[in-house]
Amino acid sequence: MPEADCPALIADLASSRELPRGGTVFRLGTRARHVYFLQHGRVLLHRFGPGGEEVVIHAAAAGEFFAEASLHSERYHCTATAAQPSRVAAIESAALRQRIQADPAFAMQWVETVSRQLRRLRARVERLSLRSAAERVQHLLLTEGQGTPPAYTPGGTLRNLAAELGLTHEALYRTLSALERQGRIARRDGRILHLG
Amino acid sequence: MPEADCPALIADLASSRELPRGGTVFRLGTRARHVYFLQHGRVLLHRFGPGGEEVVIHAAAAGEFFAEASLHSERYHCTATAAQPSRVAAIESAALRQRIQADPAFAMQWVETVSRQLRRLRARVERLSLRSAAERVQHLLLTEGQGTPPAYTPGGTLRNLAAELGLTHEALYRTLSALERQGRIARRDGRILHLG
DNA sequence: CGTCGCATTGATATCGCTCAAATCCGGTGG
DNA sequence: CCACCGGATTTGAGCGATATCAATGCGACG
To answer: DSSP states of B52-116 as a string?
Structure first.
């Protein structure tokens, strides 16, 4: 099971909380006291439409911060619940805000943390805008791959990867097989290599 | 033509530059001297694969910052070119970094700017992960709509909206018609209303 | 050893893409 | 004022890629 430590940056401000499946991290309308870091599991941020339909705004994955907006907002604008048994680190917004204002070097690091996420997310949006499964896979390899030829190591299972690519797992399996048959990618011990 | 002013926050650090279609904003590997704000037009951030295939990492839209990462990076990791005649405001990274470190209130505002983008982008990723066109439209209305019932006003044309939703314009037109026929949405003077 | 989840492959249905054409609209120039 | 043009909007027909449903093998784990 992947277990991500809260970045050293703010480890001293964080306190961990364990949540069962379905557990609530925070609720819409309550005071925004904490920013969170997901150590493991899966947390959904969602809202409800007028008719009661659930709308997922963000599915946080292990190793990510979420609800950073509570730094700048009085109350939460959505509800967060655990879709799986999860462990979250809660960081007091006030303390974090305080430190950003008091420690310039820390402020830069926090900006960097957020900016990096932004960049990755933009690449992901671009990837999801591609129409074909093969294009999405190749975009992933070329933007997230390391070394030459670009090699990508899925963080979790291929099923998870499929979800991240906006595909069903069946579609991803088939696409990988097809690309491999065409000699455009290769798979070795869990990694995916991009060839010409 | 939409013309976005550079946020007052940093207007005094910015200097505008006009670009023809195809003009280069910055190139891969050159020194990361500026962060940019796109006033109007369209700028593509892209990289090239081993075989020379272009990979678009981000398509910046009017009113957005781009290349914020140059605050934390020595060199640009991609190339940016104008896909249309565009106007960009260039903000010196060094000056911006300087101000973040010297002015705590400014630092908080910059963090807020970036965090807000992050939140919107996450919602967009979630939206693009939905399989059906109707679901994407309703997600858009419920997450980006204002008032009750939620009303959404497209920034540009429906064609542009279709691209943002990862659909062809034909698919979007048909989906809107179908939803309207089913009484789930209504369209009045350019706005789209979500009903039940 | 049974169960559970992941990986994989097959068959079929469906939704959205592609190509095509008609209309509308604002702007432009004669 | 009108003819013309380009781009947006809208609707149609057909096809293909991906979702969906289904089944199997496999490894981990209790």
So the answer is: --EEEEEEEETT-EE-GGGGT-SB-SSEEEESSSEEEEEEEHHHHHHHHHH-HHHHHHHHHHHHH
Asked if strand D contacts B72 at the CB level, meaning under 7 A, the answer is no
Classify residue B6 by its DSSP letter. P
| CATH 2.60.40.3080 assigned to B8-103 | no
Average pLDDT estimate for A89-93:
96
> What is the nearest nucleotide to B131, using C1' and CA?
D19
User: Partners of B79 in the beta sheet?
Assistant: B46
Of the candidates B101, B110, B115, which has its C-beta nearest A68's C-beta? B115
Chain A positions touching B143 (Cβ under 8 A) are 47, 55, 57
> Is residue A163 a contact partner of residue B129, using CB atoms and an 8 Å limit?
yes
Domain coordinates in residue numbering, chain B: 8-103, 130-194
Which CATH topology does B130-194 take?
Answer: Arc Repressor Mutant, subunit A (1.10.10)
Q: Which CATH architecture has domain A8-121?
A: Sandwich (2.60)
Using the CB atom, is residue B176 less than 7 Å from strand D? yes
Mean pLDDT for chain B overall = 92
pTM: 0.94
> What fold does the segment set A131-194 form as a domain?
Arc Repressor Mutant, subunit A (1.10.10)
CA of B177, C1' of D13: distance in angstroms: 18
Query: What letter would DSSP give residue A186?
Result: E
Please choose, from the candidates A81, A124, A137, A83, the residue with its C-alpha nearest in 3D space to the C-alpha of residue B129: A124
Please write the tens of the pLDDT for every residue from A51-66: 778 899 999 999 999 9
Strand C contact nucleotides, protein CB < 7 Å: 6-11, 15-20
Within 7 Å: CB of B42 and strand D?
no
Whether A50 has a pLDDT exceeding 90, the answer reads no
Same fold, A8-121 and A131-194: no
Q: Which nucleotide is nearest to A130 (CA to C1')?
A: C17
Strands (E), A64-174: 65-66, 79-82, 86-92, 151-152
- Partner-chain residue, chosen from A50, A57, A119, that has the shortest CB–CB distance to B143: A57
Token pair of A101 as six digits: 């204002």
